[in-house]
Amino acid sequence: MLRATDVTMSYGSDPVFRTLSMGVDAGEVVAVIGPSGVGKTTLLRLLSLSLEPDEGAVTLDGTDVWAADESARLSLRRRVGMVFQEASLFDAPVARNVEYGLRIRRPWRDRLRSTVASLVGSNSTADAVHDALDVVGLADAVEQDAGSLSGGEAQRVSFARALAYQPDVLLLDEPTSDLDPRNTAVIESAIAAARDRGIGVVVATHDMHQARRVADRVAVLLDQGITEMAPTEVVFENPSDERTQKFIDGELVY
Ligand SMILES: Nc1ncnc2c1ncn2[C@@H]1O[C@H](COP(=O)(O)OP(=O)(O)OP(=O)(O)O)[C@@H](O)[C@H]1O
Prior knowledge:
It is a single chain. The chain is α/β, with parallel strands linked by helices and 254 residues long. The protein has two domains: 1-79 and 170-175 and 202-254, P-loop containing nucleotide triphosphate hydrolases (Rossmann fold), CATH 3.40.50.300; 82-166, P-loop containing nucleotide triphosphate hydrolases (Rossmann fold). Helices cover 40% and strands 24% of the residues. The chain has ten helices and ten strands. A hairpin with a 2-residue loop joins strand 9 (217-222) and strand 10. Adenosine-5'-triphosphate binds at residues 11, 16, 34, 36-42, 206.
């Protein structure tokens, strides 16, 4: 569904990727693993359609995103949600924070439709907010002020905000690196719930155990490219690339 093909990318004269290719399909979880500084965040920015590659193509359902005009690109971008390493909520009730994702991401026609629906008593926005919060175990926190949440709860609300508007693809950048095991488990089960709803999920993580727990396929990012992309068991049990094996065995020092 979402694909980067032969992408080359540099910051100034510093190359990050050379002819990198990878993708995610609907209803699967792909984990991107690799050492710190290898380019996981840069890859997610490419997949979020906010960073244009120097060369190569990023396509969503076959449409070349950077060959499309500005308004088509905006529509494509709306189909992709992102959760960052740190939650950034504003000081308002939890429900308002989750709703915010719906408001900024939906095209204006949908927004108008949902405003009209709420006027006639059918409140699809409230349902979507409640449903997304339920997935992260915070349905009871709708009225709570976001400023009073713990770090882990705030991250769960960030996830709910991204989930609420039903993206086709969800990108997660180290979503649990600051969380305790309980909040990590909640986010991991929310990842599975997103997958079960047909969303394609890409999660960048430095935690190989997490990749093993959540992913259907794993992409290994090393040496300015994907050295291996395969079903999770294959990558961990029987990788075909020697560098992948060394990375997984902890023998590659960066
Ligand atoms: N805006 C930028 N301008 C210049 N260089 C950048 C920029 N963003 C990232 N880089 C460099 O590109 C490389 C890849 O960075 P990136 O943040 O994508 O890696 P990462 O794998 O996500 O790292 P980490 O796991 O530490 O977050 C790094 O060398 C980084 O210093």
